[in-house]
Every structure is written in C-alpha cells, then in structure tokens.
Amino acid sequence: MTSPIVIAVDGTAASGKGTLAKRLADHFGFAHLDSGSLYRLVALGVADAGGDPNSESDAVAAAQRIPFDRRTDARVRSAQIGSASSIVSVFPKVRQALLEFQHSFAAHPPGGAKGAVIDGRDIGSVICPGATAKLFIDAAPEVRAHRRWLELKERGEQADEQAILAEIVERDARDRGRATSPLKPAADALLLDTTHLDIDAAFAAALALVQPKIGEALKAVP
Ligand code: DC
Hints:
Blueprint: E1 5-11, H1 17-28, E2 31-34, H2 36-48, H3 56-63, H4 79-88, H5 92-107, E3 115-120, H6 123-127, E4 133-138, H7 141-154, H8 161-177, E5 190-193, H9 199-219
This protein binds 2'-deoxycytidine-5'-monophosphate (DC).
2'-deoxycytidine-5'-monophosphate is lined by residues 13, 35-36, 39-40, 82, 85-86, 89, 120-123, 171, 175.
C-alpha cells in the first residue's frame, strides 16, 4: 500500500499559509486541514468555560472536549482567540490531545481524497515528518500586519495596524520560543518568502515548489 500524499504548509502568523494551503488543496483535489483552528477551538473552550488560557489545567480540560466539527465557526477566527490559542498551544498535554485528529486526517484524508494539505507551525517538523512536500511560508512582519489590517477592513471591522503588528510579533516570539514543537522550518522544508508577492504570485511560487514531488507521488496512486 502506498503512503498517503501530504503537503505540510508551516509558517508565521498571518503569512498567508492558510490561503495557500487551501488553494493547493483545491488545485490537487486534496483535503485541507487548518491545524491552527484546533488550537483556536481549545482557546474558545477555555473562554466559554470562563477559564484562563495561561492555566494549564483549564487548557488541558478544554483540549479533552474539543468540538472538532466546529473548526470553521466564525468565532474561532477572532483576534482575541488567536492570541489565546498561541498561549494554550505551549502546553505539551494540549498538543498531545490534538495529535490523533491530525494523524488520522493525514492518514485518511476525508472524502476519499488522494492527499491532504495541512497548515500550521509544526506539521513538517513534528506531526508529519514524512510529508511528501513541505513548505515554510514567511513575510516581513510589517507586510503581514498590513495584509491582516486590509482583510479586517474589507470585513468592515475596525482595527489598528500597529496593534496588529505588535500582536503578530508577540505571537511569533511565543510560537518560536516554546519548548515543545516550536515554530521552525523542517530541515527539508522549501522556504517561500511572500513579502514582495501578491496572493496569486505566492500561489504560483508555492505550486512550482511542490509540483515535482506531488506530480511524482500522484503517478504512484491508482
Ligand atoms: O495558524 P493560526 O494563526 O490559526 O494558529 C493559532 C495558534 O495556534 C498559533 O499562534 C500557535 C498555535 N498552533 C500551533 O502551535 N501549532 C500548529 N500546528 C498550529 C497552530
């Protein structure tokens, strides 16, 4: 039996990795998992229970009862839940509680898809070290903050660009600095800096990087 095809798309906060992962999944007809939404669901569970994301016991309790099917709910996308998700993701027991869901998604992509595209921080380094292709997406923090600000403005939400920048820098530092599964490119990840690329150019670059490996792997799938 051949191993399932997996594209790991890791990267910094607001780097565009989620959009790129979704577009890669659509392009190849693969299933897409935004692993950040799992940590966001833990943070939401803590908030709904009136808990504190800095409390390991509150975070672990929420991680034991994750409503996985609610990962696309609009509530998980708020800036406040984004910050809290970075805080709860530091606890190894929270990360442990999310392992099985991610491994099973990669091993059996939903809908009978021939592969999965999973985006996050540790997909290529820890969750799927044997992934078929690995990307690591980054861009200058100021550019990421500006893109996030534009996105919020388009949605009609008020936002302060400097505050977004400060939050992004703080979140990256926490994600990079944690002891368990820190944000870092896997040794064999292909790096893509999108500072000077719009989303179409970034997608074209991402596709060009993964195409040789994925094309080869697809030939082996019946
Ligand atoms: O990708 P995102 O911004 O939705 O992720 C939210 C937080 O979840 C991120 O700041 C750190 C954590 N996270 C993680 O630790 N590992 C992942 N694979 C994905 C997200």
